[in-house]
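Per your request, structure below.
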């Protein structure tokens, strides 16, 4: 369960089995370079999936500048490159992302 700045695992009855406040900050310590616990995996998987699902739709916002940036060949496939310039407010939404990104897509999309 994600709620505010907390991630937690609950039983079917709603009993909180374990929780972590500010889960992103937990990734700064040494332990995360060696092993992850269930809350780490839950946070990372949820954060990644949310990003993967939302980014294509977010890019329709006119605040994002998009342009084709040629092609890239790898493994016998030609990928199209898309250059994206994020609005400055975007760093609040996705901390750690730079203002510019390069995305790649196969001919199938």
């Amino acid at each position: 369960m994600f709620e505010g700045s907390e991630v937690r695992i609950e039983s079917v009855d709603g009993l909180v089995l374990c929780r972590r406040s500010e889960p992103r900050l937990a990734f700064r310590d040494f332990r995360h370079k060696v092993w992850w616990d269930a809350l780490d995996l839950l946070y990372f998987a949820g954060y990644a999936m949310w990003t993967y699902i939302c980014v294509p739709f977010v890019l329709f916002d006119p605040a994002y500048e998009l342009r084709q940036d040629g092609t890239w060949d790898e493994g016998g496939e030609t990928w199209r490159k898309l250059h994206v310039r994020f609005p400055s407010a975007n760093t609040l939404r996705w901390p750690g992302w730079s203002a510019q990104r390069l995305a790649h897509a196969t001919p199938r999309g």
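The chain is about 30% helix and 35% strand.

Regards,
D.
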